[in-house]
Amino acid sequence: MMAIERGTRPRGDIRGDPTAPTSVLVVDDHPVVLSGFRRVLEDLADDLGLEKVHEATDIVSGYRSFHKLRPGVVVADLSFQDRDLSGLSLIRRMRALQPDVRVLAFSMHDDPVVVSRALECGALGYVLKDAPTATVIEAFTMVRAGRGYLEHRLATSVAMLTMRGHGPPLGTLNARELQILSLLSKGKSYRVIADNLSVSYRTVISACSSMRQKLGVQTLAELVHVAVSRNKLDLGG
């Protein structure tokens, strides 16, 4: 696959003129969501200043399409089949390849830790899949214009997370560790977690060891306490 020559602008580049037509890549593995989002964008293409709407259904094809097309805006889900939160790595890789790409995370996760991680990975905006169409369009429009977007409730949750001292430590966990921490908070055993995530028992043990080091706890009981406390925080406890 041929890379773009140095000194040339990617197709759909909107750095010089935020109103110039741009292409969009939508990455989501749910056919109904993918077709629905694409239809909304295509129906409003003239109003939104869109040149072309492309789509991809998984991480690999999403990155390949991004590498080839270099769209100005990407709308990306965070969860793909059994690889929950793998969209975080996709966002990070796209931003590494093209730092000025504008990414809108489009997800079902309203966990403030996940939202914070998406923004840290390079998403400019974050909108939930159950949001009204008008809200989704508002989020897309702001991200396309190079402005951040975060619905008030989510923004408040993320801010409170940081204020209460839970932001930076949990922010050091990778996507797999966040998955395991979430399952630990629900009382799942190592074996059940391994089965649920389709990974080895040793992988779960290794991840828990890594999390204990990152979070500054010594035992599994302390790690489970952190996981449960995080759930209480997310619920406003």
TrEMBL record:
It comes from the Bacteria. GO terms for biological process: phosphorelay signal transduction system; regulation of DNA-templated transcription. GO terms for molecular function: DNA binding. Residues 23-144 form the Response regulatory domain. Residues 1-20 are annotated as: Disordered. Residues 1-16 have a biased composition (Basic and acidic residues). Residues 166-231 form the HTH luxR-type domain. Keywords: DNA-binding, Phosphoprotein. The modification 4-aspartylphosphate is found at residue 77. This is DNA-binding response regulator. It comes from Methylobacterium haplocladii.
